């Protein structure tokens, strides 16, 4: 082991000497390295700048997605269950829920409850939660719509019957005779 360390150190010294003397090392001369370095550094700078911009856009879109989704869950006042196995990051999670306010609630196997806004998690977690929550949200909306349609139909029937009753009362007034009251 010691021999390998010494050999590695010697190779580094040889490389350093080669650079100092302008000799070739690893197939590239110091002059070639010197001329390529600015282009390489420029490429790294541009890549870093693009990466920073992309990460900022990623964070912005993630926050926006959380706000929009939580506006729906809040408006509908629904809590959506997320399968615990959907996020292996929470390896000890027994249950997970997305609250109406947009908090991810994680209940571990010991019963401990942790809650944080979904927007505070990395984008990968946000996407996974939203992906699993979307079908459940659609199902809730469909259920609400079905119940509302039934209620509207029922209200319409009652309204129509009440209108018919008022027409009946008008006819009775015109004839000046009142029907007998039903007996209890």
Strand content: 5-15%
Low-confidence stretches: none
Helix content: 55-70%
Order of strands across the main sheet: 3-4-5-6
Main sheet record: 4 strands, antiparallel
Give the topology string: H per helix, E per strand.
HEEHEEEEH
- State the end-to-end distance: 107 Å
Please count the beta strands (DSSP E, at least 2 residues each). 6
Instruction: Provide mean pLDDT, rounded.
Output: 83
Structural class of the helices, strands and pairings? alpha+beta
Gyration radius, rounded: 36 Å
General form: elongated
Number of helices: 3
Give a description of the structure.
- With 184 residues, the chain is of the alpha+beta class.
- The protein has a domain at 77-172.
- Helix content is 65%, strand content 13%.
- The chain has 3 helices and 6 strands.
- It has helices at 2-21, 30-76, 123-175, and strands at residues 24-25, 28-29, 80-82, 93-98, 103-108, 113-117.
- The chain has a 4-stranded antiparallel β-sheet.
- The longest helix has 53 residues, at 123-175.
- The model has no long low-confidence stretch (mean pLDDT 83).
Please outline what is shown here.
The protein has 184 residues and is of the alpha+beta class.
Name some characteristics of this structure.
single chain, 184 residues, 3 helices
């Amino acid at each position: 082991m010691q021999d390998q360390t010494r050999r590695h150190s010697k190779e580094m010294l040889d490389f350093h000497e080669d650079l100092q003397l302008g000799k070739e090392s690893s197939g590239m001369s110091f002059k070639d390295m010197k001329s390529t370095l600015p282009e390489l550094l420029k490429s790294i700078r541009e890549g870093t700048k693009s990466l920073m911009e992309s990460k900022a856009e990623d964070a912005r879109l993630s926050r926006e997605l959380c706000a929009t989704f939580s506006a729906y869950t809040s408006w509908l006042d629904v809590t959506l269950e997320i399968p615990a196995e959907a996020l292996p990051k929470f390896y000890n999670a027994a249950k997970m829920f997305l609250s109406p306010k947009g908090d991810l609630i994680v209940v571990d196997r010991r019963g401990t409850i942790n809650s944080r806004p979904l927007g505070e998690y990395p984008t990968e977690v946000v996407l996974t939660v939203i992906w699993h929550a979307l079908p459940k949200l659609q199902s809730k909306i469909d259920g609400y719509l079905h119940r509302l349609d039934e209620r509207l139909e029922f209200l319409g029937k009652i309204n129509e019957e009440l209108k018919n009753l008022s027409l009946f009362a008008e006819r009775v007034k015109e004839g000046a005779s009142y029907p007998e009251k039903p007996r209890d």
